[in-house]
Design goal:
The structure is a homodimer. By secondary structure, the first copy, chain A, is α/β, with parallel strands linked by helices. Chain A starts with a strand and ends with a helix. Chain A is globular, with a radius of gyration of 19 Å. Chain A folds into 2 domains: 200 residues, Rossmann fold; 106 residues, UDP-galactose 4-epimerase, domain 1 (Alpha-Beta Complex). In chain A, the strands form 4 sheets. Chain A has a 7-stranded parallel sheet, sandwiched between helices. In chain A, strands 12-9-14 form a 3-stranded mixed sheet. In chain A, helix 1 packs across helix 6, helix 2 crosses helix 3 and helix 5 packs across helix 7. The first copy, chain A, contains 9 helices and 14 strands.
Chain lengths: 313, 313
């Protein structure tokens, strides 16, 4: 299949591309390398199956160019920094909502059939029961990032309903693993490398969320797309359990061998305005497709800490 | 209270302003008069309570100017033509999603506390059970208009969650009544005035939806806002029953005294790609606040036909 991956040089995108190349797809990437890393793709650069297009999903012209001759788009490009919305309010609008408009509109223009959209558990907001099923409503995100993901879902479903696209909407738990470029584990490792005697934790550390290894995440997407064929398919992707930020701190301290580190907490029930303190997705619908995750939240976190550490050595 | 109404020169906005002026609020309107009518507001133009700002919600600068000194914004401005999305794909993005971003962002900048946002039953999509409760999910709109309303809900909830705004999200059924500027009743009256012998109906006429009189709609909003005070409040607004397009055609033909009119159907289960054939909202949550509607769907349609006819005589 001829596949386009937006944000393909990013953390999740680059893992997805490894799988797509392995299954003999022809893969094009559009990435502006603002948060992606070309090193993540350098092992494919000489492959005849692989093409890199240095473009910006915020430009409709670029996306029209990138979608030519494509059969399926994995739309992963987005601002990866949820916290940024508290400071700069138009980043998620531009890099999330308007970029997703550009993607579905370019697909309509170039008659590309299928889109897989990386949405997020944060669309549910902070009042959802846990584990949260796909049919929970009303979705009331509390971050600007979450608002842009909900908008993206609507754009996908709108283009499916009006122009006959096929859509897969994947609501991701916290995705972690090798090549992570952000997130709590990444931050903790970097903080401890800078100062092994101190670890500042945003909030009271009682935040408790579900983490999924990036390998599990991309395998789940590909499995669901090969086994489900509705015009619109909505799936939570996550793991079976949760882990608290305090436990993540403990694991990272272990892995960094920073046994003298003193943990301090900035206080409050969340890391920042718009952070959701507790999140766990129901993954029953994913499990019904026959896919299961290999890692628990703790295993995924420990694996992430180790791989982040390795890049720093 | 000092209130801003976006789209205040429109169909619903002008009725809302009549109520706000009557309850002694100070009312500012921002409207670019692209689909609004200044005649709808001419009876307030000399009132000291009333101020008209000829501006565009698509301009952040205009909205920042319009929200200065305001305590509460009713954000009603939007592209009123749902069908247009099948032809022009960026209208709802600009006049819906980006305009709503401008409104909440201007409110943040000017420290305006409360927003009432006019959302729509179309956010639910076409697979929802009927009557559809507010907690139905996942919301998968099938029109570009619906996508922009879902995006608007996320922006309101995102700004509530991140910046402490208070939000009221009202999901409207089909709102009809005097000063209607669009919609099936309006279209049928105009078609029959042009040719009393023929009435073309989009689809098979079996589309069946709930209609709410605009007077009931604006009274419901004001009642809910005076009796509910959560940080985020989501309410369906509609009536107790539905009416089919065939029955609407019959009523309009009666009211137009066009008894020789031959009805033709363009066929298919919907009026256009992105039209939802059947829609009825659960209004239990609205009723629990102590508000009830005065008109049935049929009464609201008949009243609308009469008032549209009156403007043509």
């Amino acid at each position: 299949m001829r596949v386009l991956v937006t944000g393909g040089a990013g953390f999740i995108g680059s893992h997805l591309i490894d799988r797509l190349i392995a299954r003999h797809d022809e893969v094009r990437v559009i990435d502006n390398l603002s948060s992606g890393h070309s090193e993540f793709l350098e092992h494919h650069i000489h492959s005849a199956q692989f093409e890199f297009y240095h473009g910006d999903v915020c430009s409709l012209e670029d996306v029209i160019e990138a979608t030519k001759g494509i059969e399926c788009v994995f739309h992963l490009a987005a601002n990866p920094d949820i916290r940024l919305g508290t400071q700069v309010t138009d980043t998620d609008l531009r890099q999330g909502t308007i970029a997703t408009y550009n993607v579905v509109e370019a697909m309509r223009i170039n008659e590309v059939k299928t889109i897989a959209f990386a949405s997020s558990s944060v669309v549910y907001g902070e009042n959802a029961p846990m584990p949260t099923p796909e049919d929970y409503g009303p979705c009331m995100p509390i971050s600007l990032y979450g608002a842009s993901k909900l908008a993206g879902e609507g754009l996908v479903s709108g283009w499916v309903g009006t122009f006959g696209l096929q859509g897969y909407i994947f609501r991701f738990a916290n995705i972690v693993g090798s090549r992570a470029t952000h997130g709590v584990t990444y931050d903790f490792v970097h903080k401890l490398r800078k100062n092994p005697n101190e670890l500042e934790v945003l909030g009271n550390g009682l935040q408790e969320k579900s983490y999924m290894d990036v390998g599990d995440c991309v395998d789940a997407m590909l499995h669901i797309m090969s086994t489900r064929n509705d015009s619109l398919n909505v799936f939570n992707l996550g793991s079976h359990d949760t882990i608290s930020v305090r436990d993540i701190a403990r694991i990272v301290i272990e892995e960094c061998e920073a046994k003298d580190a003193v943990i301090s907490y900035t206080g409050g029930d969340r890391g920042w305005a718009g952070d959701i303190p507790k999140a766990m997705l129901s993954i029953d619908k994913m499990l019904e497709t026959g896919f299961n995750v290999r890692m628990t939240s703790e295993e995924a976190i420990r694996h992430t800490a180790r791989t982040v550490l390795k890049t720093l050595r």
